[in-house]
Amino acid sequence: MTISKHHELEEHDGYRILRLVSGDGTNRLSRECVRELTAAIGVLARNPKPLIITGNDHFFSAGADLNEITHLGSDAFDFALMGQQLMQSIDDFPAPVYAAVRGYCMGGGLDLALACDLRIAHPHAIFGHRGAALGLITGWGGTQRLSRLIGKAKALEMFVAAEKIPARKALEFGLVHCVVDDPLTKANELLRR
After folding, report:
1. Closest listed residue to residue 112, CA positions, set 133, 94, 93
2. Ranges assigned E (strand) in the chain
3. Confidence (pLDDT) at 157
4. CA dist., res. 117 & res. 98, Å (int)
5. Could you say which residues of the chain have pLDDT below 50?
6. Residue 134's pLDDT is what?
7. Terminal CA-to-CA distance of the chain, rounded, Å?
8. What does the alpha-carbon distance between residue 88 and residue 83 come to, in Å, rounded to a whole number?
9. How many CA within 13 A on the CB side of residue 111?
């Protein structure tokens, strides 16, 4: 197992698990975290194996660090590009990438899950892009990926209403592939087919 400040990497026979971690357990995607994850994905892409991205029982990821966002000035565009680069590196990964989601998957965390090939959710998983409630909109590609996945009308509803979407509704929308008690095990099963 490889451990860093913002993720842990587990090597298994034929696949890897990248687990998001943070001191407060929310797995916020700070600038430092985004840089670290982008570098890690780049290294893994050189020796590609199927990859499962997950978090903890309460948070897949709470998204971008709002404390950092409020202090962005002229570097806001660079922050958006950093996030786009991470999401594109996941989208372009040369092996399947699945998101195993437990708990909250919000904002930039949802963008990260959307960049994966499939999303598998625990029954208590919650999805959302709450930025509109704060006067924000994602700049990490989530608006395009979500509308392609679930349709423009439902994506617009999720972004504008800034609602929290429970796992079963996310399944109805087509946002997640399936809802199971153990998303990590299910992702492993699907990768081995």
Report:
1. 93
2. 2-3, 7-12, 15-20, 51-54, 59-61, 97-101, 104-106, 118-121, 126-128, 165-166, 178-179
3. 85
4. 6
5. none
6. 63
7. 25
8. 9
9. 29
